[in-house]
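Re: that chain you flagged

S.,

Sorry for the slow reply, it's been a week of failed gels. I finally had a moment to sit down with the sequence you sent. For the record, here it is as I used it:
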Amino acid sequence: MMKKFSLLLLLPAVLLTSCLRDIEDTKLKKGNVIFIHPDGVGLSTWNILRILTKGPDGELNWDKLPNIGLYRSHPKDRLTTSSNAGATMHAYGLKVPYHSFGMNEKEKLKALSGSEKSIMMEAKQAGIHIGIINSGDIIEPGSAVFVASDTSRANAESITLKVIQSKADLILSGGEQWFLPEGVEGRYGTGRRKDSLNVVEIATQIGYHVIYTRDELKSIPANTEKLLGIFAYENTFNDMTEEKQRELGLKNFNPEAPTVAEMTEAAIDFLSKKGGRFFLVVEEEGTDNFANYNNASGTLESLSRADETIGVAQKFLGKNQKTLVLVASDSEAGGMHLLGVNPKNFPPDSVTPEKDYNGAPIDGIEGTSTKHFLAAPDQFGNRMYFRVSWALGADAYGSVVVRAAGLNADLVKGSIQNTDIYKIIYATLFGKIPGV
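Prediction finished late last night. Pasting the structure tokens below so you have them in one place:
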């Protein structure tokens, strides 16, 4: 019967509800869910990271997730999605228009289960501990949509307040700019809120213990009930072109901020100590933002951090088998591709051309017209050079791959609609298929 359900995921979404009525006797098991969302990442980007860091024959943590599904990324009203629409489809299980942020564009949205809440807020209502993590701003939809809804992604002040008012057990991200009123100085800069609200004070009143640094993340007081980490003014990374970074003397990531893997390790420890089950959503936003700037170095460093996060989740899964580790993007940013080069034509000290013969931008290790990337050794000990080319600056439909391990991971198989992410998570949190 379990196999039967996984095959049913191949059917069009419109058929799923009626065809799943005989699934009540299946033995879906309830457990924890760790959903890792490296935003804007397709198969090609994973291949480049593997070749660069592990070699063509090596394995990333991502490669060790045994269950694979091929993802269909379109929203309701067009073929390419937005981060906010993608997150809404993950969090509610229904196709929505491109501009939706936890809503059916401007209208309230009922989830596939019939609840007026997102899957995370429905889980909270059921007594499951919840947490969200983002390497970017607190308003980034890949995590924020799971606890907040709004008529527009542009409503940063409203979304920030709603995320805090969700009373999630754990919130770790950047975005201090939207916590403080204009003119009020924070740890990283001056607030931008025009409504005069101090959301840090509101969070403290709700019961959050507020932290700002990696060291504070490592020493959370034992009696902490709710945890809010604010680790940057906007993002924990500097998303811009390599050339602009050099001009400003900036690295890809702010070295004082914890990595998304460090945040995830702390979050799993914090949530699991509460007892009972938990649902954690983790987004590495740098993979999307750097790719939109066609910054290969930043994209690959971001994805390496996401892969490290998968390793953290796998380690926890090894200790607690009643856990689903699920990894999926919602689109492919930039259309990043690898081109191997003949060292006879391009000696090791040569630099990449600015563009390919068809006009596609090309990156070396430090951006345009810089030295080629050098892959890690293959199985024969050979190291080969390559360059990165870009298809576009925006998010493409792409070749997104869903991977999973652990509890109910066999539901990830074949062709996966973006709305099926909701179904797979729901089955693990609630032990049933929504709408049945």
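What I noticed first: Residues 296-319 form the longest helix (24 residues).

Talk soon,
D.
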